[in-house]
Automatic annotation (TrEMBL):
Keyword match Zinc: yes
Residues covered by the SWIM-type domain: 47-84
Organism the protein comes from: Kutzneria viridogrisea
Keywords in alphabetical order: Metal-binding, Zinc, Zinc-finger
A Pfam family of this chain: SWIM
Keyword Zinc-finger set for record: yes
This protein's name: SWIM-type domain-containing protein
Amino acid sequence: MSERSVRRRADARSFERGQAYFKAGRVRRLTVAGTTVTSIVDGTSVYRVRLEITSTGLDGRCSCPYGAEGVFCKHCVATALAWLEEGGEVGEPRPQPVTDERLREFLLGKDPTWLVEQLLAVARADPLLRARLDVAAGADVHDAYDDRALRERLEGAIEIGYFVEYGEAYSYFQGVGEALDAVAELVDAGFPDVAVTLAEYALGLLEEAADRVDDSDGGLREAIGRAEEIHLDACSAGEPDPVSLAERLVERALASDYEVFLTALPDYELVLGPAGMARYRELVEQAWNDLPPKKRNDYSTRRFVVTYLMEQLAECSGGADALIEVLARDVSSGYDVLRIAERLCADGRDDEALDWLGRGMAEFPPDSRLRSLAADCHLRAGRRAEAGELLWANFADHPVLENYIALHNAMAEQFPAWRDRAVATLREEPAASARFTPVPYARPAGRSVLVEVLLWEGDAQAAWQAAVDGGCRDELWLRVARERAATHPADAIPVLLAAADQAIGHKNRNSYKTAAGLLTEAGVLFARCDRPDDFRSHLAALRDAHRPKRALREELDRADLP
């Protein structure tokens, strides 16, 4: 092993940054055990590194996001360089451990007093083992385990006095997960009631810390979900007081800003039993009755949580009718009507759903979702004409490909008449002549939807003509030009060249790479048209016009363009 072999193992950027970390003294607690090297590296967070020296080279793992995926990251580089500075020595590979059977034979032959002393020594360092032994010796299971150390571990993992940035969040949540795993061990070890208490404590800590950690990757929701999962497992394995549990579940759900215990039902129904469910119902219905009358489009957090809890409760106890009764109390928008109708449709009650949908379409602003669901009901009943009128209204309000396809799929053999009407509507859209300007999309879309429709129908010729006559969005110009290239390559060439010019105008490495790809496509078409000299002339002029752009020249060279 040498610095050169470490350099080969990592990419250039990781080696450079890892070398800087090593020189800055960020590697500590370097330990060599056999052919394994471990360390702690101080970066944007504290990372644990493990290197394995094998006959084929150096393998590395790190607790950072890249290292966890098997990448030989900068922290692995720093550790490897620190190890090399200390001589790069390794010990003998660790011998194979003693087998369970051999160890069993050994222990069976030892004096009981010696065994007891060994077990007590281990138990002094392992509170969980000590508690299990205490219970076996007659202690009350509810008092045997001292949870203070685990509480402190949860506090140390979750509580933070500063904002955890995105780069540190992965490591932070990994530490939280390890602490929660220790709580989960209590369930299988016979201390589920302690696990219930600690899971609720962890949930409180997570909510308090929530606004001080970057949750872009969803780590907070995952941690809360893990704590909730442990809580349910512990409640199922233990004997919590059902009334007290119901009170805590409702109280936490109503107070939480992070949906803690919001979806407790139906999972906790068996754990709560009749007494717990009665108390749960009493508390939720009280909160429900205390809500003021709903105003139109009132979707406050409090109302959402209380309503959701009430909906779950109704679904558990009374099915669809009970749920609809809850939903019907506060109908103040088309969305409220939609939820009722969807539940009725799920139970095959289309006629009742249509009654609600008719009310929603009459009382509230136009809503394509209500029309679409009503159209589905009519189609199931064989009323194709009624469905067509509803789906046409959606298309007329929003003439987009999705609504065109919905009309096509519903109308079957009756579609041609609807198609003529739809295409005529799309041809009336204002034309847009410009294409591939330096600022894309900063102009009318022209006949873009018509072009999309014709491409979806497989009529490339008509799509091309629609684009030429009325213009379309840039990405559609590329699609239709590529389709056109199959039969008319000369027509597609100007589109590809214009798209390449637009990409170059963005002046960044990625756009230059895109431009090189477009020019490569254009080069193929020039060759098909027997115009290779024209392509070389275009590239020569382009290189001359953009001579100062070194990155562009590099991308053109990388693409083997003249």
